[in-house]
Amino acid sequence: MKKTFITLIGGLLMAASASAEVLTLEQCRQMALENNKALQMASAEKRAAYYTRKSAFTNYLPKVSAAGGYMFTSREISLLSDDQKQALSHMGDNAAATGQQLMGALAMKHPELAPILQDIQAPIGAAFQGVQTGLNAAGQSVVDAFETDTRNAGALALQLTQPIYMGGKIVAYNKIAKLAEQAADDKYDIACQDALVEVDETYWQIVALTAKKELAESYLKLVRDLEKNVDAMIKEGVATRADGLSVKVKANQADVAVIQVNNGLSLLKMLLCQLIGLDEDTPLTLADETALDKLTADVDDSEIELSDSWRETRPELRALGRSAEVFRQKERLALAETMPTVALTGGYSWMTPTLFNGFENKFQGLWNVGVVVKVPIITWGDRIYKVKAARANTQIARLKLDEATEKIRLQIAQSRNTLIESRRRLEACESAGAVADENLRMATLGMNEGVIPVINVNEAQTAWLGAQSALISAKIDLKLAQVHLQRALGTLNR
């Protein structure tokens, strides 16, 4: 049953390994770039900067706006009083009454004219009747003509504004928008390289732990074999129980080391899955897990030779340089506030009621053209202070650029030295590994022949484990030193 169970577990592990996805470093990088949240945010910032630049360019173009409104009021504006309206609408009646009064006064003053006035009263009355009606109609027409009906008022206007001279403000704003778009590209490059470094570090650490897992399992097998040999030697009386106990301690330590390596490897693969956008429990195998020896030939002298090309390839320096230029353009913006501005305006407007031909409840319009000039006269030094503040900010930005340049130069030098040290350490570890292999072989042979004690074999195995582990670490350190130098130079490939 025990053998059957072990066989079943082995078959399941082989099936899981066979179904695991095999990924190369380039595939991991590409997947990380596609799923990295920081990169997605940086990409969105690039789009925002692009549209901001497009928006800034529209300030060169004329702006056309429309405005309209309607208002209802409870009372209308009247240009005539109620008494004036009453007098005008009864102007004929008033004239007829005045005529009757004049004839009565004339008859009383000249009685001899009474018969004559009596005879002409009828025709004069008929004449006055016509005049009365006409005057009443004329007065009412005047009252009607002065009706404003301003309770319903409306207006509509189209206005065009074309900047002519803004003191250089529009030009500076467009340059700032363009620099901001370029800075967003630099920020995206920084996020890309940071993501690639994180993926590379995790990838090579998994490769290292995979190799150390195989090493730990090989060491465990060596110790187990030694334990069996020592047990046989104890029975034959050629080894002591102390020898057996020391070997058992080493075997237990080897068991613990295998468990620790497996746990660390599991956690690192979960981290890599997270970085490349896979579920954390996705089984995966890395293409370089079985090709660790190839790392020894990856470094050549050209990578160690330094030049000043990093000033152009390092995105942080480009971003800081553009930041300094942005502040210089902000100086121009502040200076533009001290300059006069000129704009051309034109438009067409409609309104009701209108006064073009008296008061008319018609929708009528007119066009207009004008020039608007604005000149600052007294600002109590406000704009000058802003210019000086902008110049100080420009100086700060340039100092930040100089400081970052010095730090990056130091970082590159450190990364270069680390790469040189890693290459030399690898050469030393390779030599030490070969010596440890030979020592272990000689110790094992001597123990089998009875001329070397067990403790010497135990020490040789421990030394062999340390040498091989150091060799694996040296190979991975060399690869990571390459990655960090490429990051410092800004040449880490996407």
Short description:
By secondary structure, this protein is of the alpha+beta class. 70% of the residues lie in helices and 11% in strands.
Topology:
Elements (H helix, E strand, L loop, with lengths): L1 H18 L1 E3 L1 H11 L1 H21 L5 E10 L9 H8 L1 H19 L4 H32 L6 E14 L3 H68 L4 H36 L7 E3 L14 H4 L5 H4 L1 H22 L4 E12 L11 E11 L7 H67 L5 H36 L5
Helix pairs in contact: 2-7, 3-7, 4-6, 5-6, 7-8, 7-11, 7-13, 11-12, 12-13
What attributes characterize this protein structure?
4-stranded antiparallel beta sheet, 2 domains, rod-shaped, 494 residues, Outer membrane efflux proteins (OEP), alpha+beta, single chain, two-stranded parallel sheet, 6 strands
Number of strands: 6
Radius of gyration: 50 Å
> Mean pLDDT score, rounded?
84
Strand proportion: 5-15%
Overall domain count: 2
According to CATH, the fold-level topology of the largest domain is Outer membrane efflux proteins (OEP)
Question: If classified by CATH, what would the architecture of the largest domain be?
Answer: Up-down Bundle
Low-confidence stretches: 1-18
Please report the distance between the alpha carbons of the first and last residues: 53 Å
CATH class of the largest domain: Mainly Alpha
Largest sheet: 4 strands, antiparallel
**Pairing-aware structural class of the strands and helices?**
alpha+beta
- Helix segment tally: 13
Describe what this molecule looks like in 3D:
This protein has 494 residues and is an alpha+beta fold. It folds into 2 domains: 19-61 and 177-339 and 376-489, Outer membrane efflux proteins (OEP) (Up-down Bundle), CATH 1.20.1600.10; 78-147, no CATH class. The chain has 13 helices and 6 strands. It has helices at 2-19, 25-35, 37-57, 82-89, 91-109, 114-145, 169-236, 241-276, 301-304, 310-313, 315-336, 382-448, 454-489, and strands at residues 21-23, 63-72, 152-165, 284-286, 341-352, 364-374. The strands form 2 sheets. A 4-stranded antiparallel beta sheet has the order 2-3-5-6, with no helix packed on it. Strands 1-4 form a two-stranded parallel ribbon. The two termini are 53 Å apart. Residues 1-18 have low confidence and may be disordered.
